[in-house]
Amino acid sequence: MAEAAAGLVAGQANASIAARGRFMIALAGGSTPRILYRALGSSTNANLLTWGPWHIFWSDERCVPPDHADSNYRMAKEAFLDLVAVPADQIHRMRGEDSPDAAAEQYDQSLRQVFRAALPAFDLILLGLGEDGHIASLFPGTAALQEKTRLVVANWVPQISANRITFTLPLINAARRVVFLVSGQSKAAALKEVLNPNPALPPLPAARVRQKSGELHWFLTQDAAGLL
Ligand code: 6PG
């Protein structure tokens, strides 16, 4: 799954760079993507890919410092960013150490500046899937799911009694490409509900990824797809 996803990311990077001179990617947090990031940081890819035009973002972050064990930034840094030549000022970290609202506002503004657009269209947004169907830090029943105008918000998540910083659905749904990486039997039930939703139930956050004109790719392991 990781090799296949790395192949798609590399291909889209080269295509975006050829078309627009840069590659704008938002990384997923959690543990699943680590194998993809390690594949991107492998000696082959590290030397083969043109990293200079890459801009790295995160679709969410925990409210912790960048060196904290739970930091999505730290996970990606250790898995591949320390191994590839993306210019440091093109690695756009969410400031988990700041107050959640301030960090979200800062990131929202920086996106609009870097993309020079009111609604940035990422070349690729990577997402994982929570067992409850959450994406980024858009957990079921949380306020951020209702956000219609801001790109990035702070979100209090009662399920984990923690604040998070997260992309909102308008930003995710503006992406040219969204790529899901789903691994493990524990995700099979959520995946089934996302892909074959029960109309009597409110849609899970992952089921609300509906880009206007973008591509949606699912990379699944056998066990995650076990109920499809
Ligand atoms: C995070 C992620 C979150 C993650 C899912 C799946 O910050 O944790 O953004 O949305 O993708 O919770 O996590 P795993 O890959 O660890 O199962």
Task: Compile the SSE list and pairings.
Elements: H1 2-20, E1 23-27, H2 34-40, H3 43-48, E2 54-58, E3 60-62, H4 72-79, H5 100-115, E4 124-127, E5 152-157, E6 162-167, H6 169-172, E7 177-182, H7 188-195, E8 215-220
Parallel strand pairs: 1-2, 1-4, 4-7, 7-8
Antiparallel strand pairs: 3-6, 5-6
The structure holds 6-phosphogluconic acid (6PG).
Mean pLDDT: 97
What molecules are bound to this protein? 6-phosphogluconic acid
Spatial extent as radius of gyration = 16 Å
Termini separation comes to 17 Å
General form: globular
Q: Roughly how much helix do the residues carry, as a percent range?
A: 25-40%
Helix and strand run: HEHHEEHHEEEHEHE
Number of strands: 8
Number of helices: 7
Biggest sheet, open or closed, and with what strands and sense?
A: 5 strands, parallel
Low-confidence stretches: none
The largest sheet has its strands arranged as 2-1-4-7-8
Structural class of the helices, strands and pairings?
alpha/beta
Sheet-strand content, in percent, reads 15-25%
